[in-house]
Amino acid sequence: MNQRMSRYPIVLVGLLLLSMSLSGCHYASNRLYDFNDMFILGAGVIAETPRSGPWPPIVGVRGQITDFCNLGSYHFTGYWMEMDGRGFFIGPENRTELGIGPAQMIHIEQDYDKGRETYFKKADSLWAGRMAGDEMTWRNTPAKEVNYDFWADTFHLGIPAFPRGWQHWGTTSLQVGLGDPITHVGLAVRLGFDFSEFTDFILSAVGLDYKHDDLNKIEFKEKRERPN
Q1: With the C-alpha atoms ordered 224, 79, 129, 86, is the resulting torsion angle positive or negative?
Q2: How far apart are CA 152 and CA 156, in angstroms?
Q3: Which three-class secondary structure state does DSSP give residue 76?
Q4: How far apart are CA 161 and CA 180, in angstroms?
Q5: Model confidence over 71-80: pLDDT tens digits?
Q6: Largest CA distance in the chain
């Protein structure tokens, strides 16, 4: 029995080395991206603008347990910093979200011209194009949608909407904002964890990329040569 137990670490290391040999030199980077996909971490402060007018530019509470169970409303107009899965953004954001059950009304406008974002936030990247390709879409929704240009023009209604892509259906999150209507001083936080991405991270350690979201060699080359 002890001999059998002692073999398990050896087998695990063997599988890990095999997956590394199959994945190439970008193995560690792809595992990091899979790890980041599990989380939403963000915080922001308000910035009084003509758009916000006399109303508090930040107010509300909205929670979700997967995209199929939502409750609450939330509005934010200000300066935002976030790690949104494998994407990072810092800059002006205007966001309004309403949800009840599977129904969602979403408007997300992140100013990528005045802010700063990483490769995965760029709508015209090879990786983003593959995530939105015919083989990866479901219900006309990209597998992963870290760039929010589609959601910036107006409100979009979905049952559910899948604003981060259908592969993030398992996200459980909470966003809270509170602002003073007179001084317009306020803060907001957004926290989330995606259980479906946790399974992808675990299985990817042994070379099973069942979500097919790993960067390939051409995409790695573009990411390396393209400035953020």
Answers
A1: positive
A2: 9
A3: strand
A4: 30
A5: 999 999 899 9
A6: 72
